[in-house]
Amino acid sequence: MTEPIVDAAPAIDFDLKNLPKVSLHDHLDGGLRPATIIELAEAVGHTLPSTDPVALGEWFRESANSGSLVRYLETFDHTVAVMQTHEGLFRVAKEFVEDLADDGVVYGEVRWAPEQHLQKGLSLDEAVEAVQEGLEAGVEAVGEGGREIQVGQLITAMRHADRGQEIAELAVRHRNKGAVGFDIAGAEDGFLPSRFRDAFTYLAQHNFPATVHAGEAAGLESIQSALVDGRALRLGHGVRIAEDIMVEFEDDAEDTVGLVTLGDLSSWIRDRGIALEICPSSNLQTGAIAGFGEGIESHPLDMLYQLGFNVTINTDNRLMSGVTLTDEFDLLVETFDYDLDDLLELTLNAAEASFLPLEEKEALVEYINDAYANLG
Ligand SMILES: [Zn+2]
């Protein structure tokens, strides 16, 4: 007897790319076009592993996939090297916005660490201004092409360095000139957010919002510190909060979930609706989810989503991971059978967790709801 033919119609039979998307976790120095890197490198005399765009793109993806942290970090040496001048930052920021819009993103928060872009004499403020000019030029170019996109900067401090206070002040100084939030990034393990306690206090006193990378390369202690010391309104990744959730299976049957118990920390994050900026492909590549199993199907994002956590979907580093937000959506549809309602919910989660003012947030939510409703 042959197996009954399962309905082979795909659950999603429309173009994922055209769905309006919100991108909250996307690094400026992780989203360059290979051809641009080559041109900018030539202009500043920087040597690259390859000067062929296709081969260079492959080199980035292979290095990120190699399992070697050294090789992974080396990729950023090259992107950061070509982003040291006004011209370099402007161009990268402009193209970043155009690429987001091509991917269906209608609102994006772009994060980057100005302190890494001072090697050729730019000041922190000049660097932020160069990026802002590039972002605005990108928004204009997208508008000329008949689409709309809105973007904001997340000003990031590097957690292994010691410039948190300075960067927090920089972010606040640019709050009405493109900066919408603050973040700390870089080596998480061994560098708790508590190191930047004073900077986060300064931000809180100035009512300036922070998202904090936590629960990626380190676990619950890092997440706790992000919330307590960082007053994080969102968590960059935050995926290892799943370590604070106990799932007991009935009769050893792993497909029937029995009792789920949340610890105090995971309860707080779920019940308060603290958004998790989940980056599925990146989490797999960096080993952030290695403790939960081998493949993408072991990613706890589905469990977190089903349990009512405020899950948002992001790309992290589009160049290194070789992905777009459309690809990440596609991955979720393939892996977890997500349908249109799921993608809408994940997108609305991101819109509502954005650092936009309320009126603009409501307009964004309405735009997304309308676009989905019009899909028929
Ligand atoms: Zn990140």
TrEMBL record:
Keyword presence, Metal-binding = yes
**Keywords attached to this entry:** Hydrolase, Metal-binding, Zinc
InterPro entries named among the record's database cross-references: A_deaminase_dom, Ado/ade_deaminase, Metal_Hydrolase
- Pfam families per the UniProt record, alphabetical: A_deaminase
The EC category is hydrolase
Cofactor (UniProt): Zn(2+)
Show the PANTHER family listed in the entry. ADENOSINE DEAMINASE (PTHR11409:SF43)
UniProt-listed NCBIfam families:
PRK09358.1-2
Q: What is this protein called?
A: adenosine deaminase
Q: Which organism is it from?
A: Pseudarthrobacter polychromogenes
Lineage, highest ranks first? Bacteria, Bacillati, Actinomycetota, Actinomycetes, Micrococcales
